[in-house]
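Worked example 2:
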Amino acid sequence: MTNPILVTGALGNVGAEVIAHLTIDGTAGRAIRAADLSVEKVRERFGAGVEAIPFDFSKPETFPLAFAGVETMFLMRPPQISDVKRYIWPVLDAAQNAGVKRVVFLSLIGIEKTTFVPHYAVEQYLRASNLSWTFLRASFFMQNLNTTHRQEIRERDEIYVPVGAAKTSFIDVRDIAAVAAVALTQPGHDNQAYDLTGPEALDYWQAADILGAALGRKIIYKNPNPLSFLLNTIRRGTPMAFALVMTGLYTATRFGQANGTTREVERITGRTPISLREYVQDYSDWWHKP
């Protein structure tokens, strides 16, 4: 097998699903190289059919093994990394020097108007490089509800975000991964940017009602102002840099940045994107009270 496909963030929500789709859909005889901090956890998660590689954005000594023989890679920015010049630029430089030709990068919808987030700088760096790129500009992940917001939903029966009455075109990470798998394995996606959304835009009162109906209890949408959200998020243990990015993104959503829907998922994958109702049914065990 030649030219393995490298997937960074292999243990993350999106990265794991990208590997799952590549495994199911096939890669024309090419190996899948799963890179993350813990080789042991990668092996435990994906088994012997996937090559497990240690990879740390802050440790250049892990780069050569990850990039050896790779021409195509899936790149995601670890949420804890905000200084992309220090931690992402060297990764992209090393990839290009090692012979990587194409990067499929997980970005954000509305990035043109949200230039303060790290993803924007990564996009600009890729545009200026000699690498071919595909930007997957995803709307808010449905899976944020069972990860970032899991505790507040499970323990306090609330969704606590400062979005106001704005609607959000939530997308399931499984649909993002399906698009990524196509972009990684099929021609025609070089230097393209795709806005990826779910099938409908919902406000958080509607999202809370969908959750409540599936869980059999009332879920309340708490609608704090952005400052209160920032202070409470930091107070609950979120690092300040990450809390600031979260607050900025939710504030942008509050002003309508994520309220549109597209048909890119269906156009690229040939299937209708997963609805929030389907997602909640699939993940309902995550919010059952202990």
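The mean pLDDT is 94. Residues 240-254 form the longest helix (15 residues).
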